[in-house]
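Title: Comparing notes on inverse folding

I've been comparing how different people in this forum approach sequence design from structure. To keep things fair, I'm posting one structure and asking everyone to reply with a full sequence. Here's the target:
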């Protein structure tokens, strides 16, 4: 079943850099039909860090596969996820 997911992806744990190009490349692979990528400031464990907010309408299995690969590629301890009702295009 499709839903809209908001993913909160922080900076690389090793470098402290937000790797937008890597996030975009992974997003193209998993969500090639469309997604929205925004830059934000987030806080994780009390520390400010550059954060990407990725919004996509897809199925849960696809988004969980993306998260698994993104955690490895981006050296992330965790990625935040919110599941919402499926986005409508009007």
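Reply #1:
Here's my take.
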């Amino acid at each position: 079943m499709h839903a809209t997911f908001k993913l909160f992806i922080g900076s690389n744990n090793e470098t402290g850099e937000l790797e937008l190009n890597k996030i975009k490349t992974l997003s193209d692979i998993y969500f090639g039909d469309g997604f929205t990528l925004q830059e934000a400031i987030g806080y994780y464990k009390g520390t400010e860090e550059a954060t990407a907010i990725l919004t996509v309408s897809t199925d849960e299995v696809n988004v969980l596969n993306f998260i698994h690969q993104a955690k490895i590629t981006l050296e992330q301890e965790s990625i935040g996820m919110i599941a919402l009702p499926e986005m409508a295009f009007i």
